[in-house]
Structures are given as C-alpha cells and as structure tokens.
C-alpha cells in the first residue's frame, strides 16, 4: 500500500514540476531567465518550485 501512495504522490509532484516548467517556457521572461528557472526547477524540484512560485516570472 505504501508504494502505491508514494507512486501517486510522485506522479502528482512530477505533474506540478512539468506544469511549472511549461509556465516558465510560455512566460514573457528573457531567454536566459527562462533557461535558469528551468534548470533550477529540474535540479532542485522542491526548493525551485517554492522559489519560482514566490519570485518567478508572472504571465
């Protein structure tokens, strides 16, 4: 049972991170800023997502 719950939570987390990356890619930020945000989200998923949510490009 624990593996199933962990797998589901992992899948949800992956979807959230992919959504954030798509939002960054579609934002009006410059190319270098987009690249840096995407790298932060890929290499530091938890911390990167929190920082992106608070300080990332809007719109």
If you had to describe this structure to a student in words, what would you say it looks like?
The protein has three helices and no strands. With 59 residues, the chain is an all-alpha fold. It starts with a helix and ends with a helix. This is Cardiolipin synthase N-terminal domain-containing protein.
Brief description of this entry?
It is a multi-pass membrane protein. This protein is mainly alpha-helical and about 60 residues long.
Give a topology summary:
Layout (H helix, E strand, L loop, with lengths): L1 H25 L4 H13 L1 H11 L4
Binned strand content: under 5%
Q: What percent of residues adopt helix (DSSP H or I)?
A: over 70%
- Overall pLDDT score: 85
Structural class: mainly alpha
Q: What would the principal axes of the Cα set say about the shape?
A: elongated
Keywords: Cell membrane, Membrane, Transmembrane, Transmembrane helix
Organism: Vreelandella alkaliphila
Main location: membrane
Subcellular location: Cell membrane
Keyphrases for this structure?
CLS_N; 3 helices; 0% strand; mainly alpha; cell membrane; single chain; transmembrane; 59 residues; Cardiolipin synthase N-terminal domain-containing protein
